[in-house]
Amino acid sequence: MVINEKTDTKPNMYYIGSPGNTRWTRPAVVPASMTAMKEAAPLVKGLVGLTGLGVLAMLGRQLFAGSTDKHEEEDRHG
Amino acid sequence: MARQFKRHDRSDIFIHWFNAACWLLLLVTGIGLISNPAIDPFGSGYPAALRAMVGGGGNLLVIHEVIGFVWMLGFIWYLAVNARGSLFFLKEIFIVSPTRDMAWMMKKMVLMTLGPKPLKMMGVSPELPPQGFYNMGQKAFAQASVAGGVVIAVTGVIMFLSDKTFGQEAVGIVSWAVTLHFIAVGVVFAGLLVHIYMAAISPEERPGFRSMFTGHVPEDYARHHHGLWYEKVKTAPKSEG
Hints:
The structure holds two protein chains of two kinds. Chain A is an all-alpha fold. Chain A folds into two domains: 1-30, no CATH class; 31-77. Chain A contains two helices and no strands. Chain A is rod-shaped, with a radius of gyration of 28 Å. Residues 72-78 of chain A have low confidence and may be disordered. Chain B is mostly helical. Helix content of chain B is 71%, strand content 2%. In chain B, helix 3 packs across helix 4, helix 7 packs antiparallel against helix 8 and helix 10 (219-225) crosses helix 11. The longest helix of chain B has 31 residues, at 171-201. Chain B is globular and about 60 Å long. The two termini of chain B are 17 Å apart. The interface between A and B is large, with 32 and 41 residues.
């Protein structure tokens, strides 16, 4: 089996024949786009979480303090 | 019965609910396609369960792609049958008055979460500036939906073609398409949470929510929530917007 010593990405290959010099492996390079996706994920989750909190705050106010819209009743009855 | 003002025609109502249904299905299937513990929004259990339910990730991808193309075809149909309405929508959502609309947005956020007291304590009137056909909250979500929708559709098509016509030279484009697809969906979904609350749960926009079925809003709602639009249409013949 040849294992990349610098960046063991797994799964590794078993060679039935000889793979030759096992030092031929290069460090694996993660594409910039994938790094960006991994780094953006907490920001995206944070954004969704913040808006979710905002919605909960609005819902809480609606349930405990009532609507802020004084025209709501008029609208409902047209 | 109070005078009614037309806000949406049948194609508008159809595309709204068609978009909502497609978004729900695309979100459910799309999250199931993510296979990375650093990115999965709900952990790896949900994607694994969904994939097992449909007979594997390959089947789930096909389902996601089919729904995605149906979604895009729906919008092409809408643009064909209601080009005038589409242009009106785009013009309305992208024209923003920095003073009036931004003041509305800031005040509305405070009013909806904390009430009028903090504004009064700062010496700011809680009265909201009049709004046009769309208020600034609706504009902001619509802008994110349009821009995000274009990014999602284009990157989706790139990913679809990645194992069909693209070669090795397109690996960079395809991998950036994956990243942008994920980010665009996340940003639009964040806005979607507020949109669903404001439209379906909050009593503030209930007549607006009903208009997404009937196409019409009562005069009082139009006057109080979309004053600038009301001023334009109030002299129009009855039941016309």
